[in-house]
Amino acid sequence: MASAIKKVIPMLDRILIQRAEVKTTTAGGILLPEDSVPKEMQGVVVAVGPGARNPVGSGHLPVAVKEGDRVLLPKYGGTKVDMDDKREYVLFRETDILAKLE
């Protein structure tokens, strides 16, 4: 495998999302352990596939989100993707995304 991933292009209706960073410090400055902090259920769309195949004709059905959109994610699910930067990326299907945030 290559040492550096330059670009990830999801297949079909899959969407690559960067989970929002979880705050590990309280307002008073107390540091919280990572295990006690719940996962953030928001993220930013990093890459979008071309969409699901059109069962009636040729081509693909358009995806409802685009790069840069903020989305609401389910608590569980998705496929974790490890990249060289230490951020958390998850690959979801379009139907798994709960909402688009504005």
Automatic annotation (TrEMBL):
One of its GO terms (cellular component) is mitochondrial matrix. Pfam families: Cpn10. InterPro entries: Chaperonin_GroES (IPR020818), Chaperonin_GroES_sf (IPR037124), GroES-like_sf (IPR011032). Coiled coil: none annotated. GO terms for molecular function: ATP binding; metal ion binding; protein folding chaperone; protein-folding chaperone binding; unfolded protein binding. Keywords: Chaperone, Stress response. Belongs to the GroES chaperonin family. This is 10 kDa heat shock protein, mitochondrial. It comes from Drosophila lebanonensis (Fruit fly).
